[in-house]
Amino acid sequence: MKQHYITSFDIPTNIPKFAIGFDRMFEDLNRLANAQATNYPPHNILSYSETESAIEVAVAGFEENELDVEIVNNELVIKGEKQTQPDLTIQYQHKGIATRNFVLAFSITDDIIVKGAAVRNGILTIKLEYIVPEEAKPKKVAIAFQK
After folding, report:
1. pLDDT values of the chain reduced to their tens digit, one per residue, 147 residues
2. Which residue range is the domain that position 64 belongs to?
3. What angle do CA 57, 62, 68 make, to 5 degrees?
4. 69: phi > 0 → left, psi -120 to 50 → alpha, else beta; which?
């Protein structure tokens, strides 16, 4: 069976005629389709409920001043940059804990807020919350009975 891979996201030419204001969405989809996937560092994406989630990133070996979490243009960007030089007097018989620099980027919507970030036991946890906009919440419509 032949596998097909998406290498770009082509927007049909007739969509802009009917979908005004969706330019940013198509740009985001195109960026996501062309994103380079990485497996380093290992990470988990958790869902606690419909409105609460978290990202866990394995950051063993990184110091507090070597980690950075920021939101840039609807992307949650997690960086790890080693500041210290390795001790050249140590010779490893086996080195299985990687501590190379990394950048992880996750696209987030305008309705996602970052509640905080903390490191515990070598795991960086970034808590996220989905804020349901008022216009997206269900609304009751009053029923008027007439006599």
Report:
1. 555 555 555 555 556 566 666 666 666 666 666 565 677 899 999 999 988 999 999 999 899 999 999 999 888 999 999 987 778 898 989 988 878 899 998 888 888 999 999 999 999 999 999 988 888 788 888 999 998
2. 39-133
3. 65
4. beta
Composition of the chain by helix, strand, coil, percent to 5: 15, 30, 55
φ, ψ of residue 125 to 5 degrees: the values are -115, 125
| 43-47 and 67-72 beta bridge pairing | unpaired
Are residues 28 and 69 both part of a single domain? no
**Residue in 9, 35, 7 with CA at minimum distance from that of residue 23:** 9
Confirm if 58 and 49 have CB atoms less than 8 A apart.
no
Place of tokens 């969509």: 15
Q: Is the peptide bond before 41 cis (omega within 30 degrees of 0)?
A: yes
Chain length of the chain = 147
- The first and second tokens of residue 87, run together, are 């001790």
Asked if 60 and 128 sit in the same domain, the reply is yes
Report the relative pairing of strands 75-80 and 102-107 from DSSP bridges: antiparallel
